[in-house]
Amino acid sequence: MSLFADQHRDLAAIAGAGRLRRLIPRAGRDFSSNDYLGLAGAPRLAAAVAAAIARGVPVGSGGSRLLRGNQDEHEALEAEAARFFGSEAALFFGSGYAANATLLATLPQRGDLVVHDALVHASAHEGMRLGRAATRAAAHNDVDAFADAIRHWRREGGVGRVWIAVESLYSMDGDRAPLMELAALADREDAILLIDEAHATGVCGPDGRGLAASLEGRENVVTLHTCGKALGCEGALLCGPAVMREFIVNRGRGFIFSTAPSPLMAAAVREALQILADEPERRTRLAALAALAADLLGPHGARRTGSQILPVILGDEARTMRVAAQLQAAGFDVRGIRPPTVPAGTSRLRVSITLNTDPADVGSLADALGEFVA
Question: Residue 225 catalytic?
Fold first, then answer.
């Protein structure tokens, strides 16, 4: 019997359900990436990395931040990010997944409660699974459901701290969280609001500081800003009170036991933040392109979300993957999304609008979508 018999059986079951994933090469016009501002290949980022190499910044960090891996570029990025986003402190991670999982595994304590939106990212669920606090799911974007979950927990004898975990802009639905109402709830309940800004950073708010920009700097708010989407780089920044940073440095296993990110990437992220301030026209162009896409794709099933993410919910998994394959064959990189990434019965095409495309590309996609979805 194969040493991996269980894994073979599981893969066969996944394939039998039509859900076997494969890595496929990049091809076609970009309607699937999260490179919203088209910065991943920006000359300014390449020049920033080249300049860092020229001044002696190493490619690798050489170890964890608590050993010899703490480089000047990491410290400089964190100081600049805190100023840019308006927080007391910032901490740089190698990925958004690691940052979110470490945050939720570390800050909430035994006896606390994490109330999370039903559609929060898998990384948040991983952090809650690793953590010691009780957890409750609240209906998507329903502030009353969050309040009810807290109230029921208190009635059951809960006496610890409450943590509210949400995304500001949801990656699969493209809709926005009611952040002001959630912040008011956090204030009333003496709770801490954890906001994942992954898909809003760089795109929304003043200078691209995100949808939670007006909440940054509050003692009861912690935000996550990804560097691997609109910023065109890699990694993530946790922003919040200085005690948050110090506690994770001392207790966050996902931070303590990870090799530090490349200091070259820290240099690139610093430049990306400067680009956000210097080139606001990128956000203007993206907003106009997303509005055009909503107009042209809407008649063919795309939801109007008011964001750069436009889901076309087809429901049936097989049909979704068939239409995605047809679009890819026609030269459009549109991916099908199915359970467990999204709830059962909501399989969809996730159309992502980026500055790697133009109005003509959007028009051509609309024509193709009308042909294949009809």
Answer: no
167 is annotated as an active-site residue: yes
Q: Please say if 121 is a catalytic residue.
A: yes
Residue 300 a catalytic site member = no
Confidence at residue 25, expressed as pLDDT on a 0 to 100 scale: 86
Q: Residue 20's pLDDT is what?
A: 87
Instruction: Please indicate, yes or no, whether the overall pTM of this predicted structure exceeds 0.70.
Output: yes
Write out the two tokens for 56: 């002696």
Catalytic annotation, pick one of 30, 35, 112, 167 = 167
Pick the CATH number of 23-39+280-373 from 2.30.42.10, 3.40.50.1820, 3.90.1150.10, 1.10.220.10: 3.90.1150.10
Q: Which of 35, 126, 168, 199 is catalytic?
A: 199
The catalytically annotated residue of 78, 189, 196, 271 is: 196
The domain defined by 57-277 folds into Aspartate Aminotransferase; domain 2 (3.40.640)
Binning pLDDT at 50, 70 and 90, where does residue 57 land?
very high
The residue to which tokens 């927080």 are assigned: 87
State yes or no: is 61 an active-site residue: no
H-only helix segments in 28-178? 43-54, 72-85, 96-106, 122-130, 143-155
pLDDT, average across residues 156-183: 97
The span from the CA of 204 to the CA of 370, in Å, is: 30
